[in-house]
Write a structure and sequence with these properties.
Strand 1, helix 2 and strand 2 form a beta-alpha-beta unit. 35% of the residues lie in helices and 16% in strands. Helix 5 packs parallel to helix 6, helix 6 packs antiparallel against helix 14 and helix 12 crosses helix 13. It contains 15 helices and 15 strands. The protein has two domains: 129 residues, Rossmann fold; 241 residues, Dihydrodipicolinate Reductase, domain 2 (2-Layer Sandwich), CATH 3.30.360.10. The radius of gyration is 22 Å and the shape is globular. Strands 14-13-12-11-7-10-9-8-15 form a nine-stranded mixed β-sheet, with helices on both faces. The chain has a six-stranded parallel β-sheet with strand order 3-2-1-4-5-6, sandwiched between helices. The longest helix is centred in the N-terminal third of the chain and has 19 residues. The termini are far apart. The protein has 467 residues and is of the alpha/beta class.
C-alpha cells in the first residue's frame, strides 16, 4: 500500500505541473483536434427513426459473439437476421443454438474469408451490426457498416488509436448512425445503483473516482484466436484495455455532459511476467514485451476532479475493477469490499475526540437496505430478475443489450454515444504517449469539439409510457 501511495503522489505531482500550465507546450504534450469536416454536426443526443423490430447481424462468433447471440434472442423487439465468422462451423453452431432457443433460420450466413463481414453489412434486412471480433477488426467493420447505413455496436475496445477514434466520430457524424461501444460494466447492479446515489446527491459533490481492469488472464490466453490478445499486449505499451474501469466512473462524473477530461499521466512497471507468459505460449524465446505488468493512469478534469485507472492482466492479483467514488460527503467502493461510507453530522457540543472519524460505514445487510432506497429507475425488481436469469456476467450484459434495442426501437438517444467511445478508448494511445515520454502529462482532446458542457448530466432516455 505504501508503494502504491508513493506512486500515486508522484504521478499527481507530474499531472499538476502539466495542468497548471496547459498552454506551455514544454509542460504538456499537445494532441490536436482535427477540424470537423464541412457539412457535419455533432451527434450529442442523436436520435434516428424508431425501428419496429431491430434486425441484428452479429460479426465474430467466438467467446463474446456466441454469448451475445444467446442473449439477443431473449430481447423483445430484436431479431437476429445474419451471422458472420471466419470459421463456417461457428456460424452453423450459432444457428443451431438459435434453433434450440426457438428461433428460425437467419437470412444471411457469412464465413470463409477475412472480409466476409462486408456481405453482412450490405444485407438489406440488417439494422444493427453487432461486432464481437478481435480488436484489430473492430474499426474497419464499424466504418463500413455505417457507410452502408447501419447502426453499430462494437465490443471493447472499439478503437485502438487516435486516428481510429476520430474516424469513428466523423463517420457517425457524417452518416447520422449510432456508434456505441458495448461497455457492459456500466450496467452492473452496484454501478447502476451507485450512479443513482451520486445523481441524487448522497455523496455530496463527487471529486475523485477510480476504476480498473485487474484480471489474471492465465486461464484464457489460449482461447483467443491465433493468440491475438497476448500478441497485442506484447507489441503495445500503455493501458490497452481501459474501458471496463473508466466507463462507469465517467458516467458518475458526467464526462462530456458538464465536465471533460483535460490531461493524463501514466506510469507502468517493467514487464516482469509478460515475456515469460508469451514464451510459454509460443514456445519461443521472448526478449521484448511492451506492456507493463501494471499500468496506472491519472486523469484530471476541467472542473478539477481526478480519476485513477489501472490495468493488470499479468499477475495473480484478485479480479478487480476498483470502482470507487469519492465525494465531499460520502464514498462508495465495490472492490475489494463492497461498502458505502457517509459523513455523520454531529452537534458541536457532542464532538468526541476519542473517535478518529465521524462517518457511517454501510456493508452487508445495511448496505443492501441503503441500495434499496436508491434503486436505479431502469432496475425494476422484475427486470433485474429477468436479467439475472438470462445472464451474461451476472446479468449486466443482458441489460446492456436490452437498453440498446429499447432505444433503437423507440428512436431515443443511446445510453453511450460515440464520444463516450472516444473518451474511454483514448486512454490506451494517450497513456502510451505519456509512458514513452517519461510519464509526461498528455492533453486529452475534446472529442465533442466544444460541446462538452451542452448536455446537463448523464441520464437514461425513456419512452413516454415508461417515465
Amino acid at each position: 500500500m505504501k508503494a502504491r501511495f508513493v506512486l500515486i503522489c508522484a504521478a499527481l505531482a507530474l499531472l499538476a505541473v502539466g495542468c497548471c500550465k496547459q498552454q506551455t507546450a514544454e509542460n504538456i504534450i499537445k494532441t490536436p483536434v482535427p477540424a470537423r469536416p464541412a457539412g457535419q454536426t455533432d451527434v450529442l443526443g442523436l436520435t434516428a427513426e424508431p425501428i419496429e423490430t431491430v434486425r441484428i447481424g452479429v460479426v465474430g462468433l467466438g467467446m463474446r459473439g456466441s454469448e451475445a447471440v444467446r442473449r439477443l434472442v431473449h430481447i423483445p423487439g430484436a431479431e437476429i437476421t445474419a451471422l458472420c465468422d471466419l470459421l463456417p462451423d461457428r456460424v452453423e453452431a450459432n444457428q443451431a443454438q438459435m434453433k434450440e432457443l426457438g428461433k428460425g433460420e437467419v437470412t444471411g450466413k457469412y464465413s470463409g474469408t477475412q472480409e466476409s463481414w462486408r456481405g453482412l453489412c450490405e444485407q438489406a434486412d440488417v439494422d444493427l451490426v453487432y461486432i464481437c471480433t478481435d480488436w484489430l477488426n473492430h474499426y474497419p467493420i464499424a466504418m463500413y457498416a455505417m457507410e452502408c447505413g447501419k447502426h453499430v455496436a462494437i465490443e471493447v475496445p472499439a478503437a485502438l488509436d487516435l486516428d481510429q477514434i476520430w474516424g469513428l466520430i466523423n463517420q457517425s457524424e457524417k452518416t447520422r448512425r449510432h456508434c456505441m461501444m458495448l461497455e457492459n460494466c456500466c450496467y452492473d447492479f452496484f454501478e447502476m445503483t451507485t450512479l443513482e446515489m451520486a445523481q441524487r446527491g448522497l455523496f455530496g459533490e463527487v471529486i475523485h473516482v477510480e476504476g480498473a481492469y485487474c484480471h489474471n488472464l492465465d486461464p484464457y490466453w489460449d482461447e483467443y484466436w491465433n493468440n491475438w490478445r497476448l500478441d497485442y499486449n506484447q507489441k503495445h505499451r500503455g493501458d490497452v484495455y481501459p474501458t471496463h474501469g473508466i466507463g462507469p466512473v465517467c458516467q458518475v462524473l458526467n464526462i462530456h455532459r458538464g465536465d471533460r477530461m483535460t490531461a493524463l499521466v501514466s506510469m507502468d512497471t517493467k514487464s516482469f511476467n509478460g515475456a515469460k507468459i508469451a514464451a510459454n505460449h509460443t514456445g519461443m524465446e521472448v526478449r521484448e514485451f511492451a506492456n507493463g505488468d501494471q499500468t496506472s493512469t491519472l486523469i484530471r478534469t476541467e472542473k478539477g476532479k481526478t480519476m485513477l485507472i489501472e490495468h493488470d492482466v499479468m499477475t495473480p492479483r484478485p479480479y478487480s475493477r476498483m470502482y470507487q467514488v469519492v465525494g465531499t460527503d460520502g464514498y462508495a467502493a465495490k472492490y475489494p469490499v463492497g461498502q458505502y461510507c457517509l459523513r455523520v453530522e454531529k452537534p458541536a457540543d457532542k464532538v468526541d475526540a476519542r473517535h478518529i472519524s465521524d462517518e457511517k460505514v454501510y456493508s452487508g445487510a445495511e448496505m443492501e437496505a441503503l441500495q434499496a432506497d436508491y434503486r436505479n429507475a431502469i432496475l425494476t425488481p422484475e427486470f433485474e430478475a429477468l436479467a439475472k436469469s438470462v445472464g451474461g456476467h451476472g446479468g449486466m450484459d443482458f441489460i446492456m443489450d436490452y437498453r440498446l434495442v429499447y432505444c433503437l426501437h423507440h428512436g431515443l438517444p443511446l445510453d453511450m454515444d460515440v464520444y463516450d467511445l472516444a473518451e474511454w478508448c483514448c486512454v490506451a494511445p494517450l497513456s502510451c504517449i505519456s509512458l514513452e515520454h517519461g510519464s509526461m502529462p498528455v492533453e486529452v482532446p475534446d472529442f465533442t469539439r466544444g460541446a462538452w458542457n451542452r448536455v446537463d448530466g448523464f441520464h437514461y432516455a425513456l419512452a413516454k409510457e415508461d417515465k
